[in-house]
Amino acid sequence: MLYYFKQILITLFLLSHAVVFAQNAQVVSYDTHIAIENGKLKKTVDVSIQINDKDAVYFGEVEIPYNSSMRVNRAYILDKNGVQVKKLKGKDIGTKSLTDNSTFYSDAHVKYFNLKWSNFPYTIYYSYTVSEDNYVNLATWSPAYFSNIDIQSASLEVELPLHYQYKVYEKGNYIKSENNKEGKKTMSWEFDLSQDLVIKSERFSPHLFDKLPLVIITPKNVDFGGEGDMSTWKSYGDWVYSLSDGLDELTPLEKRRVHALTDHIPNKREKAKVLYRYMQENTRYINVTIDIGGLKPYPADYVCENKYGDCKALTNYMKALLKEVDIPSYAIDVNAGSEVKKIISDFPSQQFNHVILGVPFEKDTVYLENTSKYLPFNYLSDFTYGRQALWVEKGNSRLITLPSYTTDNAKEEVDLNFKLKDNLTADLSVDWTVRGTHFATLLEVKNTFNENEQKEYFKNLALVYDIEVDSMSINTIPDSDALEVKLEGTVQKIIRQVGTLKVISPINFFNTKLEDIKDRVHDVVVHHPIHQQFTVTYDLSVFDKDFVEFSPEKIIATKYGSFAITYEHIKQENKVKMHQTLLIPSGHYPIKEYAGFHDFIKNVENIMKNSNVILKRTI
Question: Which residues, if any, are the signal sequence (predicted)?
Answer without folding.
Answer: 1-22
